[in-house]
Design a protein that fits this description.
about 1050 residues, mainly alpha, ten-stranded parallel β-sheet, 18 strands, disordered C terminus, ARM-type_fold
Length: about 1050
C-alpha cells in the first residue's frame, strides 16, 4: 500500500508553525535547533580571506567551526510525503561577536551599492576617463578594497590614482587573510598608513612587513595566541603609536614584559587597552607612567592580578577601566586612585568593589565625574539607592539605577528623545570637547559591559534588559563610533539567545527590541556602507526573526529585500549572516513567496558556489541550503528552486560536501523538493534521475551525525513514492542501508526513527523490496518501533509492517518476532485512528490463510522449528479486528441502511465511518484482489474487514460526485487516486462479489452495510462518468 500526501490542500498552503513552536519550547531546522553550541569555540576563523595584490581581485575564504543543523518539524499527516523542516530555525552562536566581520574604514558606499552603480543604466554613457582626478579619488574612496582593486586594474591612470596616499590612511583587515606575502604586496601603498585593524596572530606577525612606520593606531582581535615577542616587535617598529587595543578576548600569553616594551618604545601612547592579561606588575605600570606622559586612557579588562598602588602613579590618566579584574585590594585602590589628579571616568564593573570603597572614591576624588559599577554583586547587595552617591557633576551608574536618565544629567541641554542622546551629543556643532570625550568613553565601556553581561549571563538580568538594557543598546546603535555600534549589535544578537543547545530565543527581549523601534535601526545599519555593520546587523536580524511577531515586522519593513541584497555580497561574512536571516524568515509560509519574488532563491543558489565547502565556505553553504530547504517546502517556491538550478546544486552538496551541516540541509532540501510528488514531478524526477544523488543519500544514512542520517532517510522516504526511484534506491543498496539504520536507531530521536521506518514503508511497496527487507532482518526493528509510545513513530512503523505482511514469508516473520501482540495492542489502544486501521489490516493479511500454506509446506525449515500457536494468535487477532470495526458501528443506523438506500442515511454513515487519512492511500490491483478474496473467506470477520477496507478506498473515487444541491454524496474530499481506484474497482469484478456479499444471510451487519456503501459509490461514479461523456 502506497501512502501519499493530500493533494486537495494547495501545495503551498501547509502550515504547522504554532504546533511546532509549542513542541520545541518556543521555536524549533530547517530549523533555527537545537543547534549545539560551544561557547568557547568561535564559528569564524581569524584568517578569513585573501586580499588581492596589485590590481587584482580578492577572494574571501574562511575556516569555521561547524555548527550542527537545526531541528525541524514535519508537515503533512504521518506516513505521507513529508515537507521536512517547516519550522527550521537557526540562531547565531553566542560568543561569535569576537568574529567581527570585515568593515570598510571609508564611510561610503558598500560593495553592493558600488556594484549597482556600475550596472545602472543611467551611467552607461559616462566617459569615466574624462573625469578629474579629484572626482576619481572621491569615487575610489566610496569603494571597498575589492572594488577599489578592480577599478585600479583597468588602466595605468587609475592604478596611480588608486594608490593615492589619502586612500590608504586606514586598513581594516579583520575579514581578510592577511599574512606576510600580502603585507609585502601592500607595503608600497602603506607609507602613510595611520590606522590598522587586524585579527589573529598570523596577521599580527605580518604587520611589520607593511613597513608602515607612521602607524598611530593598532586594534587587534583574536590575540589570545599573541606572544610578548610579537607585541614587543610591534611596539618597537611603530614608535609613533598613540592607540593600542588588544581584545576583547583574553591575551593569555602577554605578560608585563611586553607592557614594559610598549612603554619604552611608544612614548606618544595615549590609549592602551589590554584584555585578559594574567598579571600586570607594578614595575610595568610605573614604566608606563614614566615613559608615556600623554597616556590618558588605560583599560586593563578581565585581568587576574593588577598592582592597584602602581595605577595610582598614572597621573596623566583621565579614564581608567579595571572591569572584570580580580584580586583587587579595594581598600588600597580607593585610597590611591582617589588621588589621581586628572581622573574623570572610572569603570569598576564586574568587580568585587563594595559600597565603602565606592564612597571613598567619590568623596575623595577631586575631578571624578563618572563611575560605572555594573554587575558588581557586593556593591549591589549593600546599596539600594544610588542617589546617595550622586552629586552635581558626579554620577555613579549601576544596573539598578536609571542609566539613561543619569546620562542626561551630564549635559545642561534638554534632550527630548532620551533614546537618541548619544547621536544627539555626537552631532552637536558647538559642544564641550571634554564632555564629548567623556561621552565617547562611556559609550565604549558601557557597550563592553553590556556585551559581557549578555555573553556570560544569558538567562539572568531579565528585568534589567526589559526595563532599560534594550533601550541602552538601541541608544548605542545610534553612536557615531563604529566599534560601539558593532558591539551593540552583537550584544543584541547575543542576549536574545536563551539556550544554545535547543536554539530558543527570549521572546520578551525580542519583542522589547521590536517595541522600541530596534528593527528599523537594525535594518538601517544593515543598509550601511560598512560591511562590519552589515554582517552584525544581519546576524541580529536573523536571531530576532525567530520570534514570529518580529519576523513579521522585519518582512513588513523591507527586511527581506535587504537580506537578499546582502546575500549577494562578495564579503563572505555578510553573505553568510544574511543567508542565515533568510533561513529563519523562510520558516513563515507567507515569507517564502516574498523571498522568492525578491530574487532570494537565485541569490542563495549562487552563494553555494561562491565559496566552496572544501575551503572555508561550509557555513555559507549550510545557511543557503537551510533556507532553500525551507523554501522547497512550498510548491511554488520549489518550482523557483528547480528553475534556478537548485536541484542539481543541492545534489552536488549532498554528494560532495564533507561538512555535516551542509549534508544535513542539502538532504532536507532534497526531501522537501521530492515531497511535492505528483504536484511537481519535475522536482521529484530530477532528484531521482541522478543515480549519483541516490547513492549519495544512501551513503549519508550511515553518517556519524544523527541529523544527516535523519535528513537522508527523509529524502529517501519522499523519493520512494516514485516507482522508478524505488528501484534505483534498492539498486544503490538502499534496502540494506535503511535496515541497518533502523536496527541501530532505537535510542535515537523520534525524527530519525520515523524517517527510517517511513523510508522502508515506501520501499516495501515493491514486492522485491518487501521480500528483501524481510530477509535483511528489517521486521524485528520495525516491530520494536511499532511498540513506541510516540504516535508518529508507531504509526509509520505500522504502515511498513502492513505493507510487509502482504508477503506470506514476511507474515511468518511478524508472527515469529512477536509482532502479533504489538499489532493487537495498536489495533485497540493507539491514539491514531490510522494506526489502528493499518494494524487491523496487517493482522488480517497475516491470518487470511496464505501464511498457513507456507507453514505447512516448509515444516522442516529453521523458521518452523519454533512452536507457533497459530490458532490462538488468530483468535486473538480476529477478536481485536472485530472490536476495531465495532468502534465505527451504530447498530440502529446500520440497520436502516440494510433496509433502505436513503442517500441522506448513506451519507451520514459514510461521514461517521470514514478515516480521513486513508484517502491518501493508493491501492494496487493485487491489494484489491486480496480484498475480493477475503470477501469469500469463511471467516466473517475477514469479510467485514475487507468490506471496510474497500469502503475506505471507494471514498476517494471522485470529487465530482459531491453534488451539494442534491446532497447525494458519499465520497469525501481529497481523492487524488480516484481514476486509478475507479479503474480497479470497476474492472475487477468487485461489484458482483459485493452484491453477493451484501445479500448473503451469513454476512454480518457491518459487512452488508459497507458492501452497500461501496456499491452505491460505484453507481454514482458510473453515473457521473456517463454525464461527463454526454
Amino acid at each position: 500500500m502506497l501512502f501519499t500526501k493530500n493533494s486537495s490542500t494547495p501545495p503551498d498552503a501547509t502550515k504547522d508553525g504554532e504546533d511546532t513552536m509549542a513542541r520545541n519550547g518556543g521555536f524549533s531546522e530547517s530549523g533555527m535547533r537545537s543547534w549545539r553550541f560551544d561557547n568557547r569555540v568561535l564559528r569564524l576563523h581569524p584568517n578569513c580571506g585573501v586580499l588581492a595584490k596589485d590590481g587584482g581581485s580578492e577572494r574571501a575564504n574562511s575556516s569555521s567551526n561547524q555548527n550542527p543543523s537545526a531541528r525541524f518539524s514535519l508537515l503533512g499527516v504521518p506516513g505521507s510525503v513529508k515537507k521536512i523542516g517547516g519550522m527550521t530555525r537557526r540562531v547565531r552562536q553566542k560568543g561569535s561577536q569576537s568574529n567581527e566581520k570585515s568593515k570598510d574604514i571609508i564611510e561610503s558606499n558598500s560593495e553592493i551599492s558600488a556594484r549597482e552603480c556600475y550596472t545602472s543604466d543611467s551611467n552607461c554613457n559616462v566617459d569615466w576617463t574624462t573625469l578629474p582626478d579629484d572626482t576619481m579619488i572621491q569615487l575610489f574612496s566610496s569603494l571597498n578594497y575589492r572594488d577599489r582593486a578592480s577599478l585600479s586594474s583597468t588602466c595605468q591612470t587609475y592604478r596611480l590614482l588608486g594608490s593615492s596616499a589619502c586612500l590608504w590612511d586606514s586598513l581594516d583587515l579583520r575579514c581578510h587573510k592577511f599574512n606576510t606575502s600580502v603585507a609585502e604586496a601592500l607595503s608600497s601603498r602603506c607609507k602613510n598608513l595611520q590606522k590598522l585593524q587586524f585579527r589573529g596572530v598570523e596577521s599580527a606577525n605580518a604587520i611589520i612587513s607593511l613597513q608602515a612606520r607612521g602607524l598611530r593606531g593598532i586594534s587587534g582581535d583574536f590575540c589570545q595566541d599573541m606572544s610578548d615577542a610579537t607585541l614587543s616587535m610591534l611596539a618597537a617598529r611603530h614608535d609613533l603609536l598613540e592607540n593600542l587595543q588588544l581584545g576583547l578576548d583574553a591575551c593569555q600569553r602577554i605578560s608585563s614584559d611586553a607592557i614594559e616594551a610598549i612603554a619604552f618604545c611608544c612614548k606618544k601612547l595615549q590609549r592602551l587597552h589590554l584584555s585578559g592579561v594574567k598579571k600586570i606588575s607594578g614595575y610595568a605600570i610605573n614604566t608606563l607612567a614614566q615613559h608615556c606622559p600623554q597616556l590618558v586612557e588605560v583599560e586593563f579588562v578581565d585581568c587576574e592580578n593588577v598592582d592597584v598602588v602602581a595605577l595610582g602613579n598614572l597621573s596623566s590618566v583621565r579614564y581608567l577601566s579595571v572591569a572584570g579584574a580580580r584580586n583587587l585590594k579595594w581598600d588600597s585602590a580607593s585610597q590611591v586612585w582617589s588621588k589621581l589628579p586628572n581622573l574623570l571616568g572610572l569603570d569598576v564593573s564586574r568587580t568585587e568593589i563594595d559600597s565603602a570603597a565606592a564612597g571613598r572614591l567619590f568623596s575623595l576624588s577631586q575631578n571624578l565625574k563618572v563611575m560605572l559599577a555594573l554587575n558588581c554583586p557586593i556593591f549591589e547587595a549593600e546599596v539600594s539607592n544610588i542617589s546617595a552617591y550622586n552629586r552635581k557633576d558626579r554620577l555613579l551608574f549601576a544596573l539598578f539605577s536609571d542609566i539613561i536618565e543619569g546620562l542626561t544629567l551630564l549635559s545642561s541641554d534638554k534632550i527630548e528623545n532620551k533614546r537618541e542622546l548619544f547621536s544627539y551629543w555626537g552631532k552637536l556643532k558647538n559642544k564641550d570637547k571634554r564632555l564629548r570625550e567623556i561621552i565617547c568613553w562611556i559609550e565604549r565601556v558601557l557597550s563592553h559591559s553590556l556585551w559581557h553581561i549578555a555573553e556570560n549571563s544569558p538567562r539572568t538580568f531579565d528585568d534589567f534588559w526589559l526595563k532599560q538594557g534594550v533601550s541602552l543598546l538601541l541608544c548605542l546603535l545610534q553612536s557615531l563610533q563604529e566599534d560601539v555600534q558593532e558591539r551593540a549589535i552583537t550584544t543584541i544578537a547575543t542576549f536574545l539567545v536563551d539556550d544554545d543547545e535547543i536554539a530558543t530565543v527570549n521572546c520578551g527581549r525580542a519583542e522589547a527590541v521590536l517595541q522600541d523601534g530596534g528593527i528599523l535601526l537594525l535594518l538601517d545599519l544593515a543598509r550601511s556602507c560598512r560591511e562590519g555593520l552589515q554582517s552584525e546587523a544581519a546576524k541580529a536580524i536573523a536571531n530576532l526573526s525567530m520570534d514570529p511577531r518580529v519576523a513579521k515586522a522585519v518582512a513588513e519593513n523591507g527586511g527581506i529585500n535587504v537580506l537578499v541584497k546582502l546575500v549577494m555580497s562578495m564579503n563572505k561574512f555578510v553573505a553568510e549572516e544574511a543567508a542565515g536571516g533568510l533561513w529563519n524568515l523562510s520558516v513563515v509560509e507567507e515569507h517564502k513567496s516574498t523571498i522568492t519574488e525578491a530574487g532570494g532563491v537565485k541569490a542563495l543558489v549562487d552563494l553555494i558556489f561562491r565559496w566552496p565547502s572544501d575551503g572555508d565556505g561550509s557555513l555559507c553553504q549550510e545557511h543557503a541550503a537551510g533556507a532553500l530547504a525551507n523554501l522547497s517546502g512550498n510548491y511554488k517556491c520549489s518550482l523557483a528552486v528547480a528553475e534556478a538550478g537548485g536541484v542539481h546544486t543541492l545534489l552536488m552538496l549532498a554528494h560532495s560536501s564533507k561538512a555535516e551541516g551542509v549534508q544535513e540541509q542539502a538532504a532536507r532540501a532534497l526531501a522537501n523538493l521530492a515531497s511535492h510528488g505528483d504536484s511537481n514531478t519535475d522536482d521529484s524526477s530530477s532528484v531521482g534521475q541522478d543515480a549519483g544523488a541516490l547513492v549519495a543519500l544512501v551513503q549519508l544514512t550511515s553518517s556519524q551525525h544523527e541529523g544527516v542520517r535523519q535528513e537522508a532517510a527523509g529524502a529517501l522516504w519522499n523519493l520512494s513514492f516514485d516507482e522508478k526511484n524505488r528501484e534505483a534506491i534498492a539498486a544503490a543498496g538502499g534496502v540494506e542501508a535503511l535496515v541497518a539504520l533502523i536496527q541501530s536507531c532505537s535510542n535515537f530521536s523520534q525524527g530519525l526513527q520515523e524517517r527510517a521506518a517511513g523510508a522502508l514503508w515506501g520501499l516495501s511497496v515493491s514486492e522485491a523490496n518487501s521480500i528483501a527487507i524481510g530477509q535483511e532482518g528489517g521486521i524485528a526493528p520495525l516491530i520494536a518501533l511499532a511498540h513506541s509510545d510516540i504516535e508518529a513513530v508507531h504509526e509509520t512503523a505500522t504502515g511498513a509492517l502492513w505493507n510487509l505482511s502482504f508477503n506470506p514469508g514476511n507474515a511468518i516473520r511478524i508472527v515469529e518476532d512477536g509482532g502479533v501482540s504489538v499489532l493487537v495492542h495498536l489495533c485497540s489502544s493507539s491514539t491514531s485512528k490510522m494506526a489502528r486501521y493499518m494494524a487491523a489490516l496487517a493482522l488480517a493479511y497475516v491470518f487470511d490463510g496464505r501464511m498457513d500454506e507456507i507453514v505447512l509446506v516448509g515444516s522442516s525449515s529453521e523458521r518452523n522449528s519454533k512452536t507457533l500457536n497459530l490458532d490462538g494468535l488468530r483468535r486473538l487477532a480476529f477478536k481485536h479486528i472485530e472490536e476495531f470495526l465495532h468502534t465505527f458501528t451504530d447498530t440502529q443506523t446500520f440497520s436502516t441502511v440494510v433496509t433502505s438506500l436513503s442517500l441522506t442515511t448513506l451519507a451520514h454513515v459514510a461521514e461517521a465511518t470514514h478515516i480521513q487519512e486513508a484517502r491518501h492511500l493508493k491501492c494496487s490491483g493485487a491489494e484489491i484482489g486480496r480484498y475480493i478474496t477475503m470477501l469469500r473467506n469463511s471467516y466473517s470477520i475477514l469479510k467485514a474487514c475487507a468490506a471496510f477496507a474497500l469502503f475506505q478506498v471507494s471514498l476517494s473515487l471522485s470529487l465530482s460526485l459531491c453534488h451539494k444541491d442534491k446532497f447525494n454524496f458519499l465520497t469525501m474530499p481529497g481523492g487524488r487516486h480516484a481514476m486509478h481506484h475507479t479503474s480497479l474497482l470497476q474492472n475487477g469484478g468487485v461489484a458482483r462479489v459485493l452484491r453477493v456479499t451484501a445479500a448473503a444471510a451469513n454476512s454480518t451487519l457491518e459487512t452488508k452495510v459497507y458492501a452497500k456503501l461501496v456499491l452505491r459509490n460505484l453507481e454514482l461514479c458510473h453515473s457521473d462518468a456517463s454525464i461527463s461523456s454526454i
